Amino acid sequence: MIDYYFRNIWKPNTEKFNFTGWAIVEKIKSYNPKNILDIGCGYNQFKEKFDVPFTGIDPYNSNSDIEVSIEEFNTDITYDAIMCLGSINFGPEEVIRNQIKKISTLCHSGSRIYWRQNPGLDDHNREGSDQIDFFEWSYDYNYKFAEEFKFEIIDIQKDKNRIYAEWLKK
After folding, report:
1. 77: Cβ contacts below 8 Å, ≥ 6 apart
2. pTM for this structure?
């Protein structure tokens, strides 16, 4: 169902968010990243906003640079900035942990991850969203996973009905 939903029903609503909407572009640029990975990039709408190598991956959207899940994404590159704006939100804790473990291998000391996390809300209000297993992100989960994978939380706060978090790789 998740495949069908994100291929055929979901549409971006970037302008809705304060920290993880368009404002995230200037936030990321302020750290002068040399490269960026957007995990679950959807329509890859952030790519044109940056003048550095930018790779958007998404298992369900052909507008991505590479149509692949984070679990299947393979590269020798590490990234200065990784965007996870609504993508690492589905499944039980074990799935989320494995995805973060994979993401951590794409980071080097000083890398930053920018998150938009769903605290378990089925509020997409679109047909089929009620069939999706939304992970119940919380501040506690952020601190737990950040510690487990050797990140420091630089910022964490509400962004409308989501959680914005910025993690720094130690």
Report:
1. 35, 106
2. 0.96
